[in-house]
Amino acid sequence: MAALSITPSLLEPGLWRSDPSLERYQVQGGGSIVVRLQAGDTITIHDPQGRQVGEVIAFDKNGSPAPGGLGNHPVQKPTGLGSILTNRGLNTRPLAQRLSALGITLDDALAIPVFAPDSPPGEEVAFTASDELTCLICAPGDSMSVEEQHPPTPLIVWVRRSDLQGDTDPVLPDPLANPRLDFRIERCTARDFTVRAGEFIQIIDVAGRECSDFLAFTESKLNQGIERGLDPTATRTLMGAAYPGPGLFSKFFDQDMQPLVEVIQDTCGRHDTFGFACSSKYYEDMGYFGHPNCSDNLSNVLKDYGVAARRGWPAINFFYNTRIDDHNALYLDEPWSRPGDYVLLRALDDLVCASSACPDDTSAANGWNPTDIHVRVYSPDNIFSKAVAYRMTPDAEAELTRETGFHPRSSQLTRNFTEYRGFWLPTVFNNAGAIKEYWACREKA
Ligand SMILES: [Zn+2]
User: Fold this and answer.
1) Rounded to the nearest whole angstrom, what is the distance from the C-alpha of residue 217 to the centroid of ligand 1?
2) How far is ligand 1, taken at its centre, from the CA of residue 359, in Å?
3) pLDDT > 90: what percent of the chain?
4) Residues within 5 Å of ion ligand 1 by Cβ?
5) What is the pLDDT of residues 232-262, one digit of tens each?
6) Distance in Å, CA 372 to ligand 1 centroid
7) ipTM computed for the complex
8) From 3.90.105, 1.10.357, 2.60.290, 3.40.50, which CATH number describes the 22-142+151-160 domain?
9) Do β-strands 402-403 and 423-426 pair in parallel, antiparallel, or remain unpaired?
10) Burial class for 165, CB neighbours closer than 10 Å (0-12, 13-18, 19+)
11) Which of 211, 251, 288, 290 has the largest count of CB atoms under 10 Å?
């Protein structure tokens, strides 16, 4: 008789990152990125399409220029970066804010030029940091005129970390603006926070494939002892969808059918509004007594606001990948979210909020590996474009929805826009009729 194997074997483990010490960034043509390096880290810059000049500008930890920190290379004035910062067609405010937050001024900066206007596709250059550095890497270039043949193209930057110092979490994406609140929700916990009407809430999946259950209540009503919070059924009814997304049907409502938050950006696109946040019963039914759960975690952080505890919260379960299939089964699978994917919400009232980092390690809900969630809150005076994000290929950078060249005119004719292949397209010109719509596109736009 064959001996029975008693060693437990995990047949289908979660898909971990292949190499936590290797990071990949894309510098968009005409754009720039900021990366922080430790001594011994290596950066490799790759020009996949060729003929894209680049600049690498290094600063030490005090914000002073330190081109020698990457080795002895010829340097020049950072004219390319200068042209990016003065390009009025680009939104350079986040870059300028990031540089000022790091204490960096560009007055004495020196750039290491990389690649040439005639360099072949696939060329690479590599540098090793000899000290702690902040590096700006840019791929300068102006918008191409129609008769030209050389648009600015992306550069790919690989960073090989020499020492992870125990930190295997992916690097957080840059803040979208200066955040008013910027905090971590440790794995398997929840946090409360309050926002004012008009503020923006960014919920970031730090390592990817991690659910974050979200609750929000109108603060003024809580103060009167009336509990009115996000209601998935009211939301689905009014939005005509399983959950709202950026664009025309974008708001989450409470039981009184009052909108509480609006979805401004969503880089994941798959969430859940059908199930409860995970509860003690969910784990107990599977035999895991005493397992941490989102519902109790959310009840605990909200008790000081006069919110009564519930055994199961009908939360908005961001990044939770569920669907009702053709056989009416509510199934779940690993989340679609990748490291750094986020949802950006705008508060439509003063709200008491709570978010969780789901502790479910018993199902595919968090890719079998619960991780952290990060939350940032931005002031109402910021302007963020409404957008979803698509990747054209599995390894492409996610791109947010853009406005077409016709948008300044077509947006004056209608407010009905839908997302189509990465662009906001008008769906109807206020029923002016096919002929008028045709001429609106043809001549007036
Ligand atoms: Zn949970």
Assistant:
1) 19
2) 5
3) 60
4) 278, 294, 358, 360
5) 999 999 999 999 999 888 999 999 999 999 9
6) 12
7) 0.99
8) 2.60.290
9) parallel
10) exposed
11) 211
